[in-house]
Amino acid sequence: TSNVVVAIDGPSGSGKSSTSRGVASRLGLRYLDTGAMFRAMTWFMLRDGVDVLDAQAVAARVNAPLIESGTNPDHPTISVDGRDVATAIRERGVTNAVSPVSAVPEVRARLLELQRSVIGEGGIVVEGRDIGSVVWPQAAVKVYLTADADARATRRAAEEGGSDVTATQASLLARDEIDSGRATAPLTMAEGAHHIDTTPYTLDEVISQVVALVAEAT
Ligand code: C5P
């Protein structure tokens, strides 16, 4: 399993992060959260005063930030120009702006390059929206995680420290719609992906299912 690449895609709140970190931790693999990279890019644009709805203005700045991701599943880190943004990228302003920024082709091209360089020789669990379809289609294991909209909103609201479930659900569904409808690398189930609907399972059960898929494939 040492060089394996495990691609985990799915909509917001489907359990991708907890599952991916758990699988990486159990198997001694590295972990990459590509959503955090898109959030870091968005954080940079907002801080720089770029109008995030102006795709040309966003495209003009994509090469400006130095975005670095730490790949330890037990302590994932993300920084922009040396500044730790792990907390800042989860704030509502970034969450609301990340889908339009992520739809800009130049943003995707820049981060694709970074993602592939981190994946490198493999030995990593990578989570996102387009890992199995675009970033690493040759991944040995591809998983597409989903969950009921209610379950996703409840989980995400709890993660956010008890924010309003109805508002969280509206925000998740709005992001899903933009992520699934964009022209470049939309959210989709990749060819050869194993679909797991996590609604009826505990986190540990989902992790075990993915670990079993990795064992089968390697
Ligand atoms: O996974 P997370 O919810 O943190 O991702 C934030 C946003 O980043 C998504 O809503 C999506 O717009 C974008 N994203 C993407 N491609 C990826 C990962 C995330 O477009 N591979």
TrEMBL record:
What enzyme class is recorded for this protein? Answer: transferase
Q: Which residues form the Cytidylate kinase domain?
A: 6-214
- GO MF assignments: ATP binding; CMP kinase activity; dCMP kinase activity
> Which CDD domains does the entry link to?
CMPK
Keyword annotations of the record: ATP-binding, Cytoplasm, Kinase, Nucleotide-binding, Transferase
A family per Pfam: Cytidylate_kin
- Can you supply a Gene Ontology BP term from the record? pyrimidine nucleotide metabolic process
Which SUPFAM superfamilies does this chain map to? P-loop containing nucleoside triphosphate hydrolases (SSF52540)
Per the record, its GO cellular-component terms are: cytoplasm
Transmembrane regions: none
Annotated residues for binding of ATP: 10-18
Enzyme Commission number(s) of this protein: 2.7.4.25
Catalytic activity, as annotated: dCMP + ATP = dCDP + ADP; CMP + ATP = CDP + ADP
The subcellular location is: Cytoplasm
Q: Which NCBIfam families match?
A: cmk
Under the heading HAMAP family, the entry gives: Cytidyl_kinase_type1
Family, per the entry? Belongs to the cytidylate kinase family. Type 1 subfamily.
Instruction: Provide the protein name.
Output: Cytidylate kinase
